[in-house]
Amino acid sequence: MSRKFWFIGSIIFMVIVLTALEYMEDTIDIVEKDNINTVREVSVINKRVGTHEGVIRVFAEIKPRWAVTLKAHVDGEVIEVKDSALAGEYNAKGDVLIRIEDSDYKAHLASAKQALAAANLTLFTEQDRAKRALKDRKKSGIQSESSAIPLQLDIAKKAVSAAKANIKAAEMKKIYTTVVAPFSGIVTHRFVSIGQTVNVGEPLLSILDQTNLDITVSLNNIQWQNLATQWEKRTAQIKSKQGDRVAHAKIKRGGGFLDPKTRQHKLFLEIDNDERNNVLSGDFVNVEIPGRAVDNSLLIPASAYTRESTVWYIDEDNRLRYFPSNILFYQGDNLIITAPISRVAGDFNIVINPLASFIAGKKVNPSFEGATLR
């Protein structure tokens, strides 16, 4: 009785298992068929073949046009250091920064003026002597002139010239006892204090120009060749490291030589005066320089360009296609690339985020996003 029970139970269990397997197999077939028949939705953006002007992006440092460490032109004791000579202070051109004790230089100037007066007196005496000698020759009828008289007169004239030069030198030394700002700018470092004795050539303070700010840009050969035609006097965009525009800069000059170290071309730019307060010397910024206009090109999202240097698009039948291309310019999140030679005009529905699993010719459902890039 027990064996019969287990035998019947085993048959029932096998029937249940077979039924379950048959049901699962039918479900799998349905899922697979559903997957095969599903059309993938692909995000695309419509863009047109045309002429696009590129932008060359480089990283550069803003530098002051003038930056100098002022040094002592005279020896002496520092008797005054203005508050404006402290680091971080702004000074206009001609503002007094430091004074050096000048009594010796006043004395030298007075001596030089006295020497000039003596030289003028000697010159007057020699001139009078020459006049009297000329009258005496005319009265006596002697034609020849003593060679000593014109020589002494020449020496007296040169003595006056030398005395005037000494006065000028003494005046300059006296002027150098007052140190002034050679241009409008900010003091960055002070080296001396009140009561300190300085010698000629000793540094006093450093000052840099905050009025005129320049940028020097280095370009490789490809970037140089991709510059816009007539790039002279064009305007470049200056952006912060975060990508925010902070100023404009005019291209003043460039080319003509290669940097001996980097073998790159140089462009020299000047920050617009109205925007110089938006940046500081020493800032590292992104410089966007106008590039050349490229015919038969496309402006596409950077995400649409694959590692294989291809671009996927959807044709008129909503099937996936692709073409190889080269990047000509970077423009933020966009690229300027070459269009297929066979398509010198018209639109493309570019796939924004192509997948590695894409198969050319496969039908998809396009979903348009954003505005058309031109």
From TrEMBL:
<keyword id="KW-0472">Membrane</keyword>
<keyword id="KW-0812">Transmembrane</keyword>
<keyword id="KW-1133">Transmembrane helix</keyword>
<comment type="similarity">
    <text>Belongs to the membrane fusion protein (MFP) (TC 8.A.1) family.</text>
</comment>
<dbReference type="InterPro" id="IPR006143">
    <property type="entry name" value="RND_pump_MFP"/>
</dbReference>
<protein>
    <recommendedName>
        <fullName>Efflux transporter periplasmic adaptor subunit</fullName>
    </recommendedName>
</protein>
<feature type="transmembrane region" description="Helical">
    <location>
        <begin position="5"/>
        <end position="24"/>
    </location>
</feature>
